[in-house]
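Batch job 17 of 40 flagged for manual review because the log was empty.
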Amino acid sequence: MQASKVCGFVIAGCLVVIPGLRAGEPVRTKAEVLEVIGKVNDHWQEQHPEHGSAFWHRAVYHVGNMAAYEVTKDRDYLRFSTEWAERNDWKGAKSDNRDEWRYDYGETDRHVLFGDWQVCFQVYFDLYKESRRAKRIERAKEVMSYQITTPEKDYLWWSDGLFMVMPVMSEMFVLTGDDEYLTKLREYFDYARDLMYDEEEGLFFRDAKYVYPRHKSVNGRKDFWARGNGWVFAALPMVIDDLPEDHPDRAHYLEIYREMAAGLKASQQEDGYWTRSILDPAHAPGPEASGTAFFTCGFLWGLRTGVLDSGDYGPVAREAWDFLTTTSLQDDGRVGYIQPIGEKAIPGQVVDASSTADFGVGAFLLAAAEMVRFVESSTQ
């Protein structure tokens, strides 16, 4: 091991050497990461005490909040997500008439099968584990057990949907032991891969509208949206963690994960972030924190589990984490540089230190929680 490829993490007074991280960089302790989580999450909850709907953007915040709870055991975080879930009656879209259930884009109660209304189930699963009350997952079981009986395979027609739906289905397998959830999950994923995945670059287009050359960046290049890829790169580890070690689909998902890791490594900017259009920084210049946070989470998982080589990918994760904690994170605990809700990189759109959003805070908390796990695993 070369000294130029070493950096220390100090935990409980013990210097832990992490291959792939450079010497001379500031150490990062578990206590410091936990302090960052508290600063970010306490600020968000103090500034946003009113609970929103179960639609995707608020639900993704709560996915991150529950990750923060997992590593901090802060009961206020658990209470906050429980109150939100109760406000939404432990449901996503609320129609009880299966004849009207839809899975195209929609923000109505009829769109029960649309993934943006299903990501909330991830939070309900986590809350169920804390208190085994059947009501907490009744709706998830009702919806997902029906969905896997339908013949359609095109449920995941946009890249965001892979985050919204895939971990729900793999968790349903964990809860029920029913292999059909993994069978359908593979069908849905392969449809999405064939529709949106670019094997040459190892990246996903946001949906069919943006596939090159039908759509191009302002400079005529392939236009891969950062947050769109962030959804996928964060979701794959969640699914892989739920699969039995000997399950044949593990290798399938790991292959795409590693290809994405290589594509993202090659496109990271000098200051550790990714631009909104990953391969054309000039299309929408400047940092974007939500995609970068999802990427950070994914890279840290790969390093922690040994899926990624620390010499190749340690610096990628370190520089991304440094961007999140030194540039995106503001003095008052606000997470800035989050692109607003959308589906593409928009030339001329202002994204700066004041740009924040619930889903982006959730992504930041997911990355921070994974950093805690990474540091903890390095002492074992």
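Reviewer: the log was empty due to a logging misconfiguration, but the result itself is present. The longest helix spans residues 358-377. Unflagging and moving on to job 18.
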